[in-house]
Amino acid sequence: MGVRHTETSLIVWTGESVKGDVKDTKPEQATPHFEANQFYDAGDKGCAFGPMDEIAAIMQKMRPGQTLEIHATDQTVSVDLSAWCRMTGHQLVQHEGDHYLIQHK
After folding, report:
1. Exposed, middle or buried: residue 104 (CB in 10 Å: 0-12, 13-18, 19+)?
2. Secondary structure (DSSP) of 70-90
3. One-character DSSP codes across 88-103
4. CATH fold of 38-103
5. What radius of gyration, in Å, describes the C-alpha atoms of the chain?
6. Between 70 and which of 1, 44, 65, 100 could a Cys-Cys bridge form, CB atoms 3.0 to 4.6 Å apart?
């Protein structure tokens, strides 16, 4: 692993190389598990990459009592989502694996 800091960026590499053909693979499309009013797929985005901001923006457009299902595979979302619900008054209704159901306050 190496690290190099330049005037405008920080470059990190592992020294591993990819051999052979590199295929463009897209992550599988998540499917809803709950019967929610809206569905948001955060995929593997951790909280540092903005899913909580996107969730908040979606919730602002929803009416009281409506539900939002969130699919998030990064474990940091679970902790942050619970805390965010407590702070905002929304309710985390259900959590199954990497799917979360939130009800607007």
Report:
1. buried
2. EEE-SHHHHHHHHHHHHHH--
3. H--EEEEEETTEEEEE
4. Translation Initiation Factor IF3 (3.30.110)
5. 18
6. 100
pLDDT at 95 over 90: yes
- pLDDT tens, 21-66? 555 555 677 899 999 999 999 998 876 677 899 999 999 999 999 9
As a whole number of angstroms, the distance between CA 98 and CA 81 comes to: 12
User: Is 22 in contact with 13 (CB distance < 8 Å)?
Assistant: no
Show me where the domains of the chain are located: 38-103
Contact indicator for 42, 80 with CB cutoff of 8 Å: no
Instruction: Starting at the earlier edge strand, list the strands of the sheet with 91-96.
Output: 38-43, 67-72, 99-103, 91-96
Q: Return the pLDDT at 10.
A: 56
Cβ-based neighbour number of residue 43 at 10 Å: 15
Q: Which two tokens stand for residue 104?
A: 């607007």
